[in-house]
């Protein structure tokens, strides 16, 4: 059974990894008390553990449909392809590594510095 195709959406751009001294990142999906505070990438990893970010990663990693996409590299919809392009092959990766290399770039918002 083939899934219905959805209308195309514009591609989502990845956030480039900041270098030392560049803007820090914040994440809307973190608990309210730390949500809009700036976090370095290592700090964001510690904050992201046990949140919706890790749950989203786990759901995709455990999905038999997503595993099949990773194996055959064929996509039933544009959304499935975009999800794979964003999240990557999750079959042999742990959350910590994935967050540092990919996840923060998907979910990070640049902090606004008010002078």
Write the layout of secondary structure elements.
Layout: E1 25-26, H1 41-48, H2 52-62, H3 64-72, H4 78-87, H5 95-107, E2 109-110
Antiparallel strand pairs: 1-2
Helix pairs in contact: 1-5
Question: Would you summarize the structure shown here?
Answer:
With 115 residues, the protein is mainly α. It is built from five helices and two strands.
Describe the model.
By secondary structure, the chain is mainly α. About 45% of the residues lie in helices and about 5% in strands. The chain has 5 helices and 2 strands. The protein has a two-stranded antiparallel sheet with strand order 1-2.
Strand order of the largest sheet: 1-2
Cα-atom radius of gyration: 16 Å
Amino-to-carboxy terminus distance: 56 Å
Mean pLDDT: 75
Structural class designation: mainly alpha
Helix proportion of residues, in percent?
40-55%
What string, H for helix and E for strand, traces the elements in order?
A: EHHHHHE
Number of strands: 2
Low-pLDDT residue intervals, each spanning 5 or more residues = 18-23
The total of helices stands at 5
Largest sheet: 2 strands, antiparallel
Gross morphology = elongated
């Amino acid at each position: 059974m083939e899934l219905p195709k959805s209308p195309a959406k514009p591609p989502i751009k990845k956030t480039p990894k900041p270098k030392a001294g560049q803007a820090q990142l914040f994440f809307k999906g973190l608990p309210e008390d730390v949500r809009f505070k700036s976090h370095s990438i290592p700090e964001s990893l510690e904050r992201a553990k046990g949140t919706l970010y890790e749950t989203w990663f786990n759901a995709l990693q455990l999905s038999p449909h997503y595993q099949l996409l990773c194996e055959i590299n064929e996509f039933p919809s544009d959304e499935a392809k975009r999800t794979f392009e964003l999240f990557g092959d999750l079959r042999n990766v742990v959350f910590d590594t994935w967050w540092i290399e990919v996840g923060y770039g998907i979910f990070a918002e640049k902090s606004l510095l008010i002078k």
